[in-house]
Design a protein that fits this description.
The complex is a heterodimer.
Chain A: H1 2-18, H2 26-64, E1 69-78, H3 81-84, H4 92-97, H5 100-117, H6 139-149, E2 157-163, H7 166-172, H8 178-181, H9 189-201, E3 204-208, H10 210-214, H11 229-260, H12 265-278, H13 282-296, H14 304-329, H15 332-340, H16 345-373, H17 377-381, H18 395-401, H19 407-416, H20 420-451
Antiparallel strand pairs in A: 1-2, 1-3
Chain B: H1 3-18, E1 28-31, H2 36-49, E2 56-57, H3 62-69, E3 80-83, H4 89-97, E4 103-118, E5 126-127, H5 129-136, E6 139-142, E7 145-148, E8 168-171, H6 176-192, H7 195-201, H8 206-213, E9 222-225, H9 229-238, E10 243-247, H10 248-253, E11 258-263, H11 270-274, E12 281-289, H12 299-307, H13 309-312, H14 317-321, E13 324-325, H15 329-338
Parallel strand pairs in B: 1-2, 1-3, 5-11, 8-9, 8-10
Antiparallel strand pairs in B: 3-12, 4-10, 4-11, 4-12, 4-13, 6-7
Helix pairs in contact in B: 5-6, 7-8, 12-15
The chains are: A mainly alpha, B alpha/beta.
Amino acid sequence: MTDATAPMGADVPKKARKSSLYGTDDRTKKRNAAEKRFQMYGIAAIGIGIFFLVILLVSIVRSGVPAFTQTFIEVPVYLNEEVLDPNGNRDPDDLRRVSTFGYAPLIDQAIFNQVQQTEGLTTTLEDASDMRKMVSASAPAILRDYVLANPDEIGETVDFRILAASRVDGYMKDRVTRESVARDKNIDAAHLDLVDQLVEAGTIKREFNWDFITGADASENRPEQAGIGVAMIGSFFMMLVVLVLSLPIGVAASIYLEEFAPKNRFTDLIEVNISNLAAVPSIVFGILGLAVFIQFAHLPQSAPLVGGLVLTLMTLPTIIISTRASLKAVPPSIRDAALGVGASKMQAVFHHVLPLAAPGILTGTIIGLAQALGETAPLLLIGMVGYIATNYPEGIASGFLDPNSSMPAQIYEWSKRADPAYYERAWGGIIILLLFLMTMNIIAIILRRRFERRW
Amino acid sequence: MSFVKLTASTLAIAAVSATAAAARDNVQVAGSSTVLPYASIVAEAFGENFDFPTPVVESGGSSAGLKRFCEGVGENTIDIANASRAIREKEIKACADAGVTDIVEVRIGYDGIVFASQLDGPDFTAFEPADIFNALAPKVMVDGELVDNPHTKWSDFNADLPDAEILAFIPGTKHGTREVFEEKVVAAGCEATGAMEAMIEGGMSEDEAEDACLAVRTDGRSVDIDGDYTETLARIDGNRNGIGVFGLAFYENNTDTLKVATMSGVEPTTESIASGEYPVSRPLYFYIKKAHVGVIPGLQEYAEFFVSNEIAGPNGPLSNYGLVSDPELAETQEKVSNLTTMGSGS
């Protein structure tokens, strides 16, 4: 062996002598090229990632931003006494008897009058009832509520700001085109001509729509009225349940496992299982929630409490793992010092280790919460999807127990609906959800930056 | 933050939640996702016009809704079940076992099922049940023989149809729509083409042949859609040659992207379905738990409001959305105001 290698070994120094510090030899060139290539792959990977992120964000923003504005019609309505209070005695019970169907013609007439009074306006629509297709079905209810609250104003003319129908709104946002209108029985080209002229006259305006953020969901035939507000409250109550349950349970479990538990097979088993639980698909927790909380414990369906409990199960492993990691990051010298001056083990943990680990624990919790906030799959099974969130909860108990939706469930629900106007609202909902998630993640980052200590 | 305190507060919250479910003042409805849009339109208008709170409407499917309906009587059970089919004997029995004996059946109208395709796709404008059967059945009649379906293009069996690949998106088996599709289209086509006769001659009993008639081919030309119509719409958007099965209401909201085919020469409209000319339609129902009337405030008012002329009538919001109003609405109204239960009368 040594004989065979000797001549080769003699060659190497010869070659090495040829290389210079100023020139690069072939092998170095090759290695440098390999490194360049690797860097290029890396840059390409990042580039692809950024490319898709930009496409995603651009498409979300482009499809979702229109949902934040809405088309309104500003029109003076004559509150006709003959229709609204035929007996003329302003008796609330009598006023209540006139349903929203009685109010609708007043609005038609009001818009028709406005059209006729506006100068230079030409239209082929010659009947007040033709105006119906331009107005949201929610308008009569606004009028009725106003009249019931202010019965004195019957017989007067009052200015109202009412929602335009979703097709008119879609036309203002270029979602509805003239070609598509030709095949649409919900609105005619004559209406669009009229809309164009009313926009110029200032009767129809497109404005920012707070109701999209604060409002309740609406039924399928009035997408213009729908908002994500109630679902947001549902999400809020769910997050409250998740926070209140998973933080103490998660922290207690990880402190015990990390600081007190003996290291034996049993605790090893628990540890492995916690890691496994963190990887369990969330739909599994949904099925578990359905079986345990609804079918066994008979908690109400679609309630944020149940949603919160299911999401707690899902978030717990995340919180336990991050809490244990931050407890582990506290150097043992801190514990030793505390124990050395005579602290009990519990005092050492609660007075010294836990405060130092707190920023890490909070970060983990916030990230866990953000994950839970965006989760839809487990909610499918406990009835939070497919529910129309039209009622605001009354008080705290009702917030937990009354059926409600959650933000991601609401988005899913909107994307399923037949009217294309709901599609835009689903994207708008995604923007709001993303803003929430981003805020939570930013808070987590700030907490980590400000309070994290390094050793 | 001692975790003893935190655990105590956790327990307190659990205790509060256990004492839940106080008196309920709103009507609770669950059931068919086909009826959901109508029910939510009514619930919304009901909340606006009455002093009762807006009813809570959930979906989940006809069977799931009826199952919850039949869980028993009491405030923690639902008051109304929506269904896109009539209640079954088995379900009535399950209801009776749980103490739900008096059920009021309310037919709210009809839902049409239409065949639609991409607006600028091939010319699918006229179908017969036989065409659908020939395109989608696993075994069809060719030259008087029952053979494995050899057709790959619509024009293979009907020269009037376009020369396009067969590709159909039909509702999955968990949908109520599938039942109507099978019964009114596939089975009708099976009989019309003589395939059923051939099956019986081939040694099958009549029942077996009827079942065999409902099968669809599994070579990928017929795709079951388990999601809802938006999914079918997305598939149609992506496939120029695709044909999809939709509810009439869904089609009417998407006329700008879909074109509809006639069935047996009849165009699906609310009128042609109401008159019974258009063959593929089904009644929609909801069921009221009579024991809850008078206990849950607003229950009967909601039901009466639902079937009132201004809501469910020919020009009401439901019919504008796509429901085909029931020509016998007056009888239904009477039934609701008298709370005539199933099995008594009629």
